[in-house]
């Protein structure tokens, strides 16, 4: 058993070393793609979009969504997915203006908004809703960005498709039991508080799909 | 003068030829054990299998294994790259451009993570695991595939100074006067070397193995959430097979439905079904086909995960499409005449039987 753990430590060290070397090879994916799991940073307030099994004490009483300062918290991961009826294939870059769903990885609930007041600032409440990634049409958000595709280094806006309000943070802080976490809400006007950027995560690269080439195209008989 | 230079020249030629023969370069296909026509997928599979066997940590102090391992790395680096492979096929190893883009350790570590057994040291605090649903298509389950992902995560780096760690509540007793004491609660921390979290990226590769089933997991040790006082958790990919518009999976068998016309049902037909990898499955039927009739095609199902040489079956269920337009009197007379053998039955019975 001793030799085994020694081996593991050796391997782990060599892996850490090669980690540093691979840094120079750079990123091989510049866009955010469907199927990726990401952390979203509010640029102005430097907090990450977060959810957990804690419900709002007012408003809708649904699962709360907050902003946290911690960098390493697995409850800050959100899955980028297409909407129902318009499946987004794994690895497809998200287009600017595309409607997506952001599903909280650990609880399986979707980023959601509706006409309820947020507890601290009385803006529009943003919650996490649904089961196993399925909720309703109020789970849909439009990605607003500059070019044609959502670039990883770009700061983007998330507009709630139905209410047209923008996902924002203005700095109000909660007390116990989620001390220090910021309120996340939606506001009707875009401002510096509404910009978000992807940070840590697992980004899916597009794959070569096996199978018949692109379905049932016309058969060539002239050859 | 001329004969001597000719001799020298031929000797030099011979030497060069000899040197070239010795250093003609390695046979990368032989090293990986794949044919020259192998697909990139076969090459990757062969590499993974051999890399695990030949890794130096597993063959400590065996210099032959070390050489074979570095040969393996070189072979994979060339054959897994389209450009380099083309050059190698034409000109051999010497025809390749100088310089290697990545170290062998690099290539190895990005895919071999998942085979490392977990170190069960409970005393070290661990970061959270990340479990990620990986959606795969039925085509990928049939043929297998490789998915590349980029993992961007914070890594603890040394920083100058110290920081507080292992903070805990302790009771402190202070003396207020002779015989009078007070107990207060205090937060006490240790001093640890300072670390800062820096975001780093690496590419990982997940293999979608043939025949993989729902909820099977592919773990990558240490790629989960970091822990500032301890070890990072793991990243686990959980397979989620998507629904297919044509085929339904049940275990290793595939089910599909075909609608045929009434005429085809009565007189027979010939047809093809395009399978998940594009190959055609041929059907010939010359008997009457009843609605709900099933046809079994052995070996046309999915490969079994544990043994890809075993395949399930393809089961085709037929349903019959009746003509939409009503028949006129002439057609009805014709029908009665044609199908005279089948008399009017009109059997009344309970078809539900309690359902």
From TrEMBL, chain A:
Q: Which Pfam families match?
A: MIR
Q: Which Gene3D superfamilies match?
A: 2.80.10.50
Domain MIR as annotated: residue spans: 29-83, 91-146, 147-201
The region annotated as signal peptide is 1-26
Primary localization class, coarse: secreted
- Cell compartments where the protein resides: Secreted
Keyword annotations for this protein, in alphabetical order, are: Repeat, Signal
Segments crossing the lipid bilayer: none
Under the heading PROSITE patterns, the entry gives:
MIR
The entry's cellular-component GO terms read:
endoplasmic reticulum; extracellular region; protein-containing complex
Q: What is this protein called?
A: Stromal cell-derived factor 2
From TrEMBL, chain B:
Keyword hit for Glycoprotein:
yes
Q: Which Gene3D superfamilies match?
A: DnaJ domain, Urease metallochaperone UreE, N-terminal domain
Task: Please list the GO terms describing molecular function.
Answer: misfolded protein binding; unfolded protein binding
Signal sequence residues = 1-24
Q: Which SUPFAM superfamilies match?
A: Chaperone J-domain, HSP40/DnaJ peptide-binding domain
Keyword vocabulary terms for this entry: Glycoprotein, Signal
| SMART domains assigned | DnaJ (SM00271)
- Entry GO CC: endoplasmic reticulum
One Pfam family cited in the UniProt record for this chain: DnaJ
Keyword Signal included in the entry's annotation: yes
Gene Ontology biological-process annotations: protein folding
Annotated J domain residues: 27-92
Q: Which PANTHER family match?
A: DNAJ HOMOLOG SUBFAMILY B MEMBER 11
Entry function: As a co-chaperone for HSPA5 it is required for proper folding, trafficking or degradation of proteins. Binds directly to both unfolded proteins that are substrates for ERAD and nascent unfolded peptide chains, but dissociates from the HSPA5-unfolded protein complex before folding is completed. May help recruiting HSPA5 and other chaperones to the substrate. Stimulates HSPA5 ATPase activity. It is necessary for maturation and correct trafficking of PKD1.
The entry's protein name is DnaJ homolog subfamily B member 11
């Amino acid at each position: 058993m001793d030799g085994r753990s020694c081996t593991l430590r050796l391997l782990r060290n060599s892996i850490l070393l090669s980690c540093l070397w691979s840094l120079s090879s750079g990123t091989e994916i510049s866009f955010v793609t469907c199927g990726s799991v990401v952390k979203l940073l509010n640029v102005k307030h430097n907090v990450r979009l977060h959810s957990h099994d804690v419900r709002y004490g007012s408003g809708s009483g649904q699962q709360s969504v907050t902003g946290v300062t911690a960098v390493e918290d697995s409850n800050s991961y959100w899955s980028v997915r297409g909407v129902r009826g318009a499946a987004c294939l794994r690895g497809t870059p998200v287009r600017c203006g595309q409607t997506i769903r952001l599903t909280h990885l650990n609880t399986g609930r979707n980023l959601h908004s509706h006409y309820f007041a947020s507890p601290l600032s009385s803006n529009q409440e943003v919650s996490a809703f649904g089961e196993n990634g399925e909720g309703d049409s109020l789970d849909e958000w439009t990605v607003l960005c500059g070019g044609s595709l959502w670039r990883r280094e770009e700061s983007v806006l998330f507009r709630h498709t139905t209410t047209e309000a923008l996902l924002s943070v203005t700095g109000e802080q909660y007390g116990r039991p989620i001390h220090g976490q910021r309120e996340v809400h939606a506001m009707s006007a875009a401002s510096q508080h509404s910009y978000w950027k992807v940070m840590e995560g697992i980004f899916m690269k597009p794959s070569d799909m096996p199978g018949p080439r692109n379905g049932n195209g016309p058969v060539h008989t002239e050859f | 003068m001329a004969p001597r230079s000719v001799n020298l020249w031929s000797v030099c030629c011979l030497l060069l030829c000899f040197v070239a023969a010795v250093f003609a370069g390695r046979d990368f296909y032989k090293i990986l054990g794949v044919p020259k026509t192998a697909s990139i997928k076969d090459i990757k599979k062969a590499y993974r299998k051999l890399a695990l066997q030949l890794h130096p940590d597993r063959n400590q102090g065996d210099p032959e294994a070390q050489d074979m391992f570095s040969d393996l790395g070189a072979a994979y680096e060339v054959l897994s790259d389209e450009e380099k492979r083309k050059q190698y096929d034409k000109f051999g190893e010497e025809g390749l451009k100088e310089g290697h883009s990545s170290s062998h350790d690099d290539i190895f570590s990005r895919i071999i993570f998942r085979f490392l057994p977990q170190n069960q040291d409970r005393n070290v605090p661990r970061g959270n695991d990340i479990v990620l649903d990986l959606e795969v298509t039925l085509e990928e389950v049939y043929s297998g595939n490789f998915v590349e992902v980029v993992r961007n995560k914070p890594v603890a780096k040394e920083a100058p100074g110290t920081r507080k760690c292992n903070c805990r509540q302790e009771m402190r007793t202070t003396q207020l006067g002779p015989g009078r004491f007070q107990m207060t609660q205090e937060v006490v921390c240790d001093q640890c070397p300072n670390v800062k979290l820096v975001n780093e990226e690496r590419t990982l590769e997940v293999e979608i193995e043939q025949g993989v089933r729902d909820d099977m997991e592919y773990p990558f040790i240490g790629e989960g959430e970091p822990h500032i006082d301890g070890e990072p958790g793991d990243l686990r990919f959980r397979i989620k097979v998507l629904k297919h518009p044509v085929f339904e999976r049940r275990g290793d068998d595939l089910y599909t439905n075909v609608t045929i016309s009434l005429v085809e049902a009565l007189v027979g037909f010939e047809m093809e079904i395009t399978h998940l990898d594009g190959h055609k499955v041929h059907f010939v039927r010359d008997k009457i086909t009843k609605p709900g009739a099933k046809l079994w095609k052995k070996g046309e199902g999915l490969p079994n995960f544990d043994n890809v040489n075993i395949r399930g079956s393809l089961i085709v269920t037929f349903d019959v499409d009746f003509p939409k337009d009503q028949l006129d009197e002439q057609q009805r007379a014709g029908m009665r005449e044609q199908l005279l053998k089948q008399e009017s039955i009109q059997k009344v019975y309970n078809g539900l039987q309690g359902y």
